[in-house]
Amino acid sequence: MGGGVDILELARHNQQTAWKILEHTGIIPAGGRIGATVHLLGSLKSGLLAKSRDIDLHIYTDRLDIAESFSVMQNLAERLSLKEVHYKNLIQTEEECIEWHALYEDEDRNAWKFDMIHIRKGSKYDGVVEKVTAAIVNRLIPEIKQTILQIKFDMPDSVMIPGIEIYQAVFVGGVRHYEQLEQWRKNNPLTNSLDRLP
Q1: Which class for 171: exposed (0-12), middle (13-18), buried (19 or more C-beta within 10 A)?
Q2: What is the pTM of this model?
Q3: Taking 80 as the threshold, does the pLDDT of residue 35 lie above it?
């Protein structure tokens, strides 16, 4: 296994940095200002953050108000060194959400990606990703966690594979290293990731 680098240690360090950034940016309280419930999801929540600098959040409100959603982003943009902000209006789709993707630069000049999805409470996808995350966490025995982190660290930086696809391959396909993952993906193309609960 890779030249003596302790991947669990490396992952722990990256996760601690992510938690500090989450605290420093105050994104969760910013959502609270519009009466929103904010959930942390994704690899930071599940303890599977390896080298990707992504922080995933869901912001829930009773109704989707575009001005309110923008006010949260305005608050963040005024306070933080956000390099880029991307807005996507999916209010009229079955997903009933507003997507925000923001690039944030930390003091070491590393770029972090915030994926903030503003969702209407009670909509079709309310809580779906949270359930997926919980299902993954429930199955994370140390050996599996180590395997997933190793695969993520071994993945070339140029390759983008959604976490959910990696977990699926490990849990369902018995994949144990990156080369096997490539093979598994050829044979098991992903359709809708949300329908494929582990």
Answers
A1: middle
A2: 0.88
A3: yes
